[in-house]
Amino acid sequence: MKKVIVYTTVPCARCGNAKEILDRYGAEYEEVNLAKDPDGRAQLVARTGLMTFPQIVIGGRTVGGLDDLRAADERGELAELLAA
For residue 15, which of 24, 28, 54, 57 is within the disulfide window of CB 3.0 to 4.6 Å? Predict the structure, then answer.
C-alpha cells in the first residue's frame, strides 16, 4: 500500500471517521496530530494548501477531507488509491 498521512486534531469526530474508513481497508497511516505537533500545521499548509481537519494524503496525493475520502470510497476508487 502507498504511504498514507492523516492530519488530525483533538477533538475531531470527523478525524476518527476518516481513520475508521482507512482501517476498514487495512491501510497503515501516519497520523500527524496537529494539537500535539504545531509545526505540522506549516507542513499541512505547504502540502495541501488547507487548514481543515482531517486532511488525507495518499502516496503524496492530497485526497482532501472526510467527505472526499467517503466519496472516493463510494465510487470504488479508494482501493485503487491505496494500492501500491
Answer: 54
pLDDT 10s digits, 43-66: 888 888 888 899 999 999 999 999
The Cα 73–Cα 50 span in angstroms is: 21
**Residue 62: which of 38, 84, 45 has the closest Cα?**
45
Q: Which domains does the chain have, with CATH numbers?
A: 4-82 (3.40.30.10)
Per the listing, cell 478525524 goes with 15
Spatial separation of the C-alpha atoms in residues 12 and 78, rounded to whole Å: 22
CA 73, CA 42: separation in Å to the nearest integer?
28
Burial of 2 (0-12, 13-18, 19+ CB in 10 A): middle
